[in-house]
């Protein structure tokens, strides 16, 4: 009976994973198709579409914009997120639980709701639709990612480490930078990698706040409206490989103590 149950669970899990990832494998496979039309079976394999991709000026510009937005918003979220997570962990005050729920709102609300809200609010305070608006929008939900990831590590931290630092003559800043920060560095690295991936892949908020420039996901969306070509498959393959690598590294760092 236990073997049958184990087989059913394993088979169900494998079936779900296959259903989710088989289309991605097809995209990767078709990206090497020499013909301009994706068809099966593939008669000739080639790297031509990857070569054309790296000569596509609009695509290169979209990648540069995406990296700029992802890195800038991640740095801003990191600067705000670390002290915020530390304050949430160290101090108890009225409304703390409510504040935690409010912090989670940007990642629990549908992206389209956040995008429409920012589209309505930003012009009221003088922020036009631009890369600046996109940067602020990305930072908003990345702060929530940073705080939740780092706060989880703070909760696992030995509370006596900071007290020991104080007993040895360290002031609060020295204790934080020389004792606390080194013990949460893996969580910070994991949160940074996860934030970079989420920012690079973000569409709803970007769609509502972008002006003339395109980020990589918006550029890919525009290409797909003209039909799925092997060039789109090549872009999707590279994005999948980079995102998967960053996510696995993030999980690895978050598991380290």
UniProtKB/TrEMBL annotation:
The membrane-spanning stretches of this chain are 7-32, 65-86, 98-119, 125-148, 232-251
Primary subcellular site in the record, as a coarse category = membrane
What is the recorded membrane topology of this protein?
Answer: Multi-pass membrane protein
Where does the source fall among the domains of life? Bacteria
According to the entry, every stretch annotated as the ABC transmembrane type-1 domain falls at 63-250
Q: Which GO terms describe its cellular component?
A: plasma membrane
Family of this protein: Belongs to the binding-protein-dependent transport system permease family. CysTW subfamily.
What is the designated name of this protein?
Answer: ABC transporter permease
